[in-house]
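User: I'm writing a short report section on ligand binding and want a predicted complex to refer to. Could you take this sequence and flavin-adenine dinucleotide and write out the structure as C-alpha cells? A short remark afterwards would be nice.
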Amino acid sequence: MNHNTERSGRRSQTGNKLKISFEFFPPKTKEMEESLWGAVTRLAPLSPSFVSVTYGAGGSTRERTHDIVERIAKETSIKPAAHLTCVGATKEEVDDVIRSYAQSGVNHIVALRGDPADGVGGRYAPHDGGYTNAADLVAGIKEIGDFEVSISAYPEKHPESPDFATDIEMLRQKVDAGATRAITQFFFDNDLYESYVERVRRAGIFIPIVPGILPIHNFKQMANFAGRTGASVPQWLANRFEGLDNDVETHRLVAAAIAAEQVQDLFERGVDDFHFYTMNRANLSYAICHLLGMRPVAQGQDAA
Ligand code: FAD
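Assistant: Sure. The C-alpha cells for the complex follow:
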C-alpha cells in the first residue's frame, strides 16, 4: 500500500467510527435565521448524534433558543439539545422552560451556570431565587424529568477557577448531580486536552469529555474572544493565519486544514466523539467532516 492509499484508507475508517454533534446560536434577524436553517439542512445528512442551540449571555435569548430547538425537533430528524443557564431568572422561570421542553419531546439539555448579561468576563452573581450554579441546575433538571444532561468542561480551566483542583471539583459536583457528558471549551493544543482528561480520570470521573472543535472563520475575532474564555492561542496557529486577514478564500482553506488535522490527531489518540462550534455556518464544519471521511446519508435512512 502506498502512502496516499494508506492515508485515505485511515480517513474513511475515521469517518465510519466518528460521532459528531454541531452547535448553533439563536439568530437575531430574518437573514440570520435563513443562514442558520441553511446550515442545519446542509449538516443534517452527516447524521450528527445531536445539534445544540446556545442560550444568550444573561439569559437574553430564552424564547429564541426555545423556538429554534422546538423547530429542529418538529421539522428535522435530528435530536436537538437546548442550552440553559442559571442567569437572570428565578428557579420557577427556569423550571417552566424545562417543563416546556419535556412537553415538546426535547429530552437533552446542556446545563450551564452561564455568563452575566454584560457577557464573557463580567462578574457573575446568582439571581435572587435562581439556581446558584451549574450543578444546582443539573439537579433541578433531573428532578423535573428524565433528561439527558450535558455540561461544560475546560481543558485549560475556567478563567474564574483558581486552580485545576477547584475546576475539576466543580465538574464532579455536576456529574454527581446527574450529568452524563461534558463538552469542552474550544482549544487548539491537543496535549492540553489530553492532560486535562488524564486529570479528570485520576479524579475518578469517567463521563465522556467531548472535545469542542472551533473551525476558525475569522482568526482575529477568535483570538480576541479566546482571551476572555481562557482558551490559549498558540503562536504556531497565529503564524499559519499570518497575512490572511483580507484573503478570505485562503483563510478558509487553512482553517479547514487546521481543524481536520486537529480532529485526526485526536482520533489517533483515541477520541471518537467531537462537538463542532459551527458559528451557524456549514461550510467549514462540512468540509472538515468530509476530509475525515464522513459522507452524507439520505434523510430518513439509518446512519448505521
Ligand atoms: P461551572 O461549570 O459551574 O463553573 C465553571 C468554573 O468556574 C468551575 O470549574 C469553577 O472552578 C469556577 N466556579 C464557579 N462557581 C464557583 C464557586 N462557587 N466557587 C469556586 N469556583 C467556582 N454560556 C452561555 O451564556 N450560554 C450558552 O449557551 C453557553 N454554552 C456553553 C457551552 C459549552 C460547551 C461551554 C464550554 C461553555 C458555554 N457557555 C455558555 C459559557 C459558560 O456559561 C461560561 O463559561 C460560564 O462562565 C461558566 O458556566 P459553566 O456552566 O461552565 O460553569
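A remark for your report: Residues 5-291 form a domain with the TIM Barrel fold (CATH 3.20.20.220). The first strand starts at residue 19 and ends at 24.
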